[in-house]
């Protein structure tokens, strides 16, 4: 039996994804960028398939295509050839190179090989090349994502006279969330630099011709200007103690960093809007005040359907913290909060957002896989699950609805358009949770309610 006390160390159905996959997603949110994996072809194929199934968009990931002999002699020559190919075939403005399990294990010196490549390169106008170390055997896709964002900022950001812009480092959120954040910043009259920006690159309009590099993403010039912005807002409560991209901008260029929780639900969104009001020096725009008011009204209306329901919440650490904050305020009891991440800060972050809202605190577990989640949750008898589609089998086993959020969503349509953040995102999540509980009641009742 696998449990926390036993020495069993295998993972069964991981509740996290491959670390360089997160880095590739972050690079995809930069204008003109091509994600590049230094490793075997299989890694790139797996990641492309995984990303495409959720976003339903093409996703090119270049690879140095290492074989057995490179595991012995090193992958430097293949990496250099691969970079040349990407330069010729894609005309990339930036190549984001992430390492993989293989190249980390054999000890390839990624920055050193890239330096050598630059020295040997004869062509002018070479793209920016950013490298990031992403050994997947130690870490999650979210660590890879944040490491890539930090590496990009470390490489490109420059200082200068303070501008009116603010930096927004939102983490890995949906394209719909990013579009909404842009709308909010515009409504506050704030010029914003959002890094990364996958709102178009991973959810773009139909094209007659295939663009090798999709339009959109954070422009390189904007990233360069991040060192002269007047503030950075950075989402992620489990990141607070980390040396993040926001902290780097603060330490290197004196740009003040305001860490915030992912704004999911009323209270975390209030905090976000409070900071925006302060930075913009103006009150909350009427449109958003109205949305907040409607959300509170919906909290009241929906309460009778969901009060005291028991939820299992799982996924990326910062996402589950935001979801728990939201669930607690709508009257749902999260009984198990689980993540494959191991920041060491999840329990404290969950306790901070719950405050005294819940009758009893949930079990909070880091470093979990779905085998362990099933074992922990069996006795808890959940009424509902909130997480990505990898929990579907558990939901089926418990005959409980699964409200799909985050990434990946492989068994439903519209994952990139799922809105989680802000008053509007909370409204969307509330409607879906209430309807999931109503539907469950309807399905399991012999009465055949047509009016609930
Ligand atoms: S080998 Fe490592 S880097 Fe490659 S797909 Fe598997 S976990 Fe990811």
Describe the SSE topology.
Blueprint: H1 19-28, E1 33-38, H2 41-55, E2 62-63, H3 68-73, H4 76-90, E3 94-99, H5 101-106, H6 110-120, E4 128-132, H7 141-156, E5 166-169, H8 175-187, E6 192-194, H9 220-224, E7 231-235, H10 245-253, E8 257-260, H11 266-280, H12 286-306, E9 310-314, H13 317-330, E10 333-338, H14 346-354, E11 363-365, H15 370-378, E12 384-387, H16 392-398, E13 402-404, H17 422-444
Parallel strand pairs: 1-2, 1-3, 3-4, 5-6, 5-7, 7-8, 9-10, 9-12, 10-11, 12-13
Helix pairs in contact: 1-7, 7-10, 12-17, 13-14
Bound molecules: iron/sulfur cluster (SF4).
Outline the structure in words.
This protein has 452 residues and is of the alpha/beta class. The protein folds into three domains: 19-156, Rossmann fold; 166-262, Rossmann fold (3-Layer(aba) Sandwich); 286-444, 3-Layer(aba) Sandwich (Rossmann fold). It has 17 helices and 13 strands. The protein has helices at residues 19-28, 41-55, 68-73, 76-90, 101-106, 110-120, 141-156, 175-187, 220-224, 245-253, 266-280, 286-306, 317-330, 346-354, 370-378, 392-398, 422-444, and strands at residues 33-38, 62-63, 94-99, 128-132, 166-169, 192-194, 231-235, 257-260, 310-314, 333-338, 363-365, 384-387, 402-404. It has a five-stranded parallel sheet, with helices on both faces. Helix 13 (317-330) links the parallel strand 9 and strand 10. Helix 7 (141-156) runs parallel beside helix 10 (245-253), helix 12 packs parallel to helix 17 and helix 13 (317-330) packs parallel to helix 14 (346-354). The radius of gyration is 22 Å and the shape is globular. Iron/sulfur cluster binds at residues 18, 20, 39, 43, 46, 100-101, 136.
């Amino acid at each position: 039996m696998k449990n926390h006390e036993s020495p069993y160390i295998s993972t069964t159905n991981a509740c996290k994804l491959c670390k360089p996959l997160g880095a590739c997603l972050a690079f995809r949110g930069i204008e003109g960028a091509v994600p590049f994996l230094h490793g075997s072809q299989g890694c790139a194929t797996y990641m492309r398939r995984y990303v495409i199934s959720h976003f339903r968009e093409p996703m090119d990931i270049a690879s140095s295509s290492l074989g057995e002999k490179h595991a012995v002699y090193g992958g430097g020559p293949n990496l250099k050839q691969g970079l040349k190919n990407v330069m010729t075939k894609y005309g990339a403005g930036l190549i984001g190179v992430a390492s993989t399990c293989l190249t980390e294990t054999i000890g390839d010196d990624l920055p050193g090989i890239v330096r050598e490549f630059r020295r040997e390169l004869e062509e002018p106008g070479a793209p920016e090349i950013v490298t990031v170390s992403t050994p997947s055997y130690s870490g999650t896709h979210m660590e890879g994502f944040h490491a890539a964002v930090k590496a990009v900022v470390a490489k490109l950001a420059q200082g200068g006279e303070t501008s009116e812009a603010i930096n927004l480092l939102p983490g890995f959120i949906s394209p719909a969330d990013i579009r909404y954040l842009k709308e909010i910043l515009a409504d506050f009259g704030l010029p914003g630099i959002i890094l990364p920006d996958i709102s178009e690159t991973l959810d773009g309009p139909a094209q007659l011709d295939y663009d090798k590099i999709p339009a959109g993403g954070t422009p390189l010039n904007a990233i360069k200007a991040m060192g002269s912005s007047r503030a950075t807002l950075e989402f992620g409560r489990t990141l607070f103690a980390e040396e993040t991209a926001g902290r780097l901008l603060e330490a290197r260029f004196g740009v003040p960093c305001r860490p915030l929780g992912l704004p999911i639900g009323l209270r975390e969104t209030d905090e976000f809007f409070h900071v925006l009001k302060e930075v913009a020096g103006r009150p909350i725009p009427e449109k958003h005040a109205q949305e907040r008011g409607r959300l509170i009204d919906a909290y009241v209306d929906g309460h009778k359907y969901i009060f005291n329901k028991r939820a299992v919440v799982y996924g990326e650490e910062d996402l589950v913290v935001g979801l728990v904050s939201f669930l607690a305020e709508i009257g749902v009891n999260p009984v198990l909060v689980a993540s494959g991440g191991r920041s060491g800060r999840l329990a404290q972050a969950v306790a901070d957002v719950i405050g005294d809202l819940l009758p009893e605190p949930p079990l909070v577990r880091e470093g979990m896989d779905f085998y362990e989640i099933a074992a922990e949750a069996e006795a808890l008898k959940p009424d509902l699950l909130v997480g990505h589609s990898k929990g579907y089998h558990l939901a089926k086993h418990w005959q409980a609805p699964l409200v799909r959020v985050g990434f990946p969503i492989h068994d439903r349509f519209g994952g990139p358009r799922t809105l989680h953040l802000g008053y509007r995102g909370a409204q969307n999540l509330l409607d879906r949770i209430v309807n999931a509980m109503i539907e469950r009641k309807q399905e399991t009742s012999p009465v055949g309610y047509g009016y609930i």
